[in-house]
């Protein structure tokens, strides 16, 4: 697998994990159009690969992502409404693609988690926050809309809470994010965040990558598919898994009281 060259991201691959660091620290890792494009290229590169089992999204220098890039918005102003529409929709496409990634997507949320950063948190499979992180949807306070983020926020925390947060532009910390169900863990300090990430990755490595990918697709399909047809397809996927290489290896490892190959 060949990863794309990136100017706004730092990429580090080790042990089946691709660490993707948003790297615009001078702008608190604000989401530029270039960064959106690079993230989409990375997702496309790993989509069919079996050597990356988890993606860890993090921000450089203590901030996750402070939202959209103001310079990009200023540049689009001269080109008119169509440029704004394309700029905004590109980020929505990124959220769709990241949510559908076959890998386990883990977001490590520190410092500013605002706007677009909030949206990325909402598409993660597992979210680990620093208690002192600052979350929020500041768009309405700027006279604009959380247009691409809103559907993902609603699915993550529910319509009632999404309405409150979006219509007040309220800020809140990692503990409140945990209470809302936006994140799964809220840790007290940097060391605890890193320890939680390490433990989570160990858990992911115990799971067969193909089974994880299919299970994630099944779970996401519950939001869109009718139950009967979905259960029909799920039965076929189950049969494929049981008779496939991972099912055979998992069963044999259990009988032989050893770790399966993917967990070694």
Automatic annotation (TrEMBL):
CDD domains: crotonase-like (cd06558). Coiled coil: none annotated. Transmembrane segments: none annotated. Gene3D superfamilies: 2-enoyl-CoA Hydratase, Chain A, domain 1, Lyase 2-enoyl-coa Hydratase, Chain A, domain 2. It comes from the Bacteria. GO terms for molecular function: catalytic activity. Pfam families: ECH_1. One of its GO terms (biological process) is isoprenoid catabolic process. Belongs to the enoyl-CoA hydratase/isomerase family. This is Isohexenylglutaconyl-CoA hydratase. The lineage of its organism: Bacteria, Pseudomonadati, Pseudomonadota, Gammaproteobacteria, Pseudomonadales. The gene is atuE.
């Amino acid at each position: 697998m060949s990863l794309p060259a990136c100017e706004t991201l730092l990429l580090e691959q080790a042990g089946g994990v691709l660490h993707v660091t948003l790297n615009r620290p001078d702008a608190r890792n604000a989401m530029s159009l270039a960064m959106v494009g690079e993230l989409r290229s990375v997702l496309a590169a790993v989509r069919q690969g079996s050597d990356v089992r988890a993606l860890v999204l993090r921000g450089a220098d203590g901030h996750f992502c402070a939202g959209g890039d103001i310079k990009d918005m200023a540049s689009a102003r001269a080109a008119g409404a169509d440029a704004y529409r394309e700029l905004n929709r590109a980020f929505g496409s990124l959220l769709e693609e990241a949510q559908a990634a076959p890998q386990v997507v883990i977001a490590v949320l520190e410092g500013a988690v605002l706007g677009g950063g909030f949206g990325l948190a909402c598409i993660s499979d597992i979210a680990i926050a620093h208690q002192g992180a600052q979350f929020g949807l500041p768009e309405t306070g700027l006279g604009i809309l959380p247009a691409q983020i809103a559907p993902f926020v609603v699915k993550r925390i529910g319509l009632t809470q999404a309405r409150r947060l979006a219509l007040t532009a309220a800020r809140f910390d990692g503990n409140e994010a945990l209470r809302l169900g936006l994140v799964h863990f809220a840790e007290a300090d940097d060391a605890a965040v890193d320890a939680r990430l390490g433990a989570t990755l160990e858990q992911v490595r115990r799971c067969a990558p193909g089974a994880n990918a299919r299970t994630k697709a099944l779970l996401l399909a519950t939001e869109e598919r009718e139950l009967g047809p979905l259960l029909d397809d799920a039965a076929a996927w189950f049969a494929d898994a049981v008779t496939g290489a991972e099912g055979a290896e998992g069963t044999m490892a259990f009988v032989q009281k050893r770790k399966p190959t993917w967990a070694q």
